[in-house]
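Morning, I've got a small favour to ask if you have a moment. It would help a lot if you went through both lines with me. Thanks so much in advance, here it is.

***
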Amino acid sequence: MQALVKYGKGKRLMELREVERPAPQEGEVLIEVKAVSICGSDLHIFHDAHPYWPPVVLGHEFAGVIAELGPGVAGWQAGDRVVSETRTGACGQCFVCQTGYPQVCEHKRAYGIGVNGAFARYVAGPARLLHRLPQAIPFETAAVMEPTAICVTSILERAGLQAGDSVVVTGPGPIGLLSLAVARAAGARLAGVTGTGGDEQVRFAMARALGADFTINVEQEDPVQKVLALTGGLGADLVIEASGGAPAIAQAFALARRMGRVCAIGISGREQVPIPYDRGIFKALRYDFCFSSSWLAWERGLALVARGLLPVHKIITHTLPLEKWQQGFELLEQQQAVKVILIP
C-alpha cells in the first residue's frame, strides 16, 4: 500500500512509498482509513521542528472502519465506524498513567510520530483507544475529532472555561478556530480571535462563521486596547494561546485580566520563548500548559458534534487524495487553507 513516510531526520525527507499492510497484534485492530487530516505537527515534522522517530508513516488525525480484529479483541467487529486516540505507547504503570493522564506519559509514542500512522490505506493500533463514530458524523468531519478533543480537554477540563466568560483566542489556525467553537459551545459571552494580515482572507472569515464577536489584525490595531475596550477595561477572563508565536505568547499576559487565565495549546517549535514573567506574577494569572486529550473529551466532543452543537466541519476547506499531500502542505503553509483532509 502507499503511505506518506518521513524517512529520516532533517528538513523535508518525506515521500510516498510502498509499504506493507500492517497486521494487527494482540489487542489491536486494523483500521481502513477513510479520511485523515493534516495537523500542524505534521508540518513541524516536515521541517524537523517536532519530536519524531523515523522512518515513520505520518498521520494521527483519522477516521475509518475496522477491517480486521487482532487476537484478544472483544466488543468490536469488522465494519464498525471508529476514531482513535493517539496515546500509543503509554506505559499504563507510571505515576502519570496511574493517576489518569496516560496521554501525557513520557513513554507515549503517538501515531504518525513514534509509530506508523494514518497517511496510508490502513493503520493498526490498540482497540482500547477506539471510540465509536456516530452515523451522524461523516468520516471527513471525524478526521478533525483529535484536535477537537485536545481543545475540549484544554479549555473545558484544564482551563475551566465557565459559561459567561470572555475569551480571546490568539492565532486563528485550526486549533485556534476549534478553540473558538468550543468556547462558543460552552457559553462564552464574548469570544474573538487575534491574528495577522495573512489571516484576513480565509481564517478571519471562518472565525466569524463560527461565531466570533470580533477579529483583530494585530498589524493594524492594538489588540490589548481593543480587548480592554470590549471588556470594560478588565481584560479577558480566558486567553487561549493557539498560535505558538513568541509575540502572541507574550501578549497573552497583557490580554488577560487580573486573576485571569491563560490556556496554552500552541506549539512554538522553539527550545525557549521569553515571557513577561513579573507581569504574570503581579496580575496573579493562572497559566495552564495543555497537551493531548482525555478519554472523556473524545466522548464529549463526539456527542457535541453529532448533535450539531459543535460545527467543526466548518474549518475543513480542502479535501484531496493522499497523492496530493504536497499541495495540502503548501496550502496550509501559505495560509490558503484551514484544515486539509486527505483521502488514502
Remarks:
- The mean pLDDT is 97.
- The chain has two domains: 2-147+293-343, 160-289.
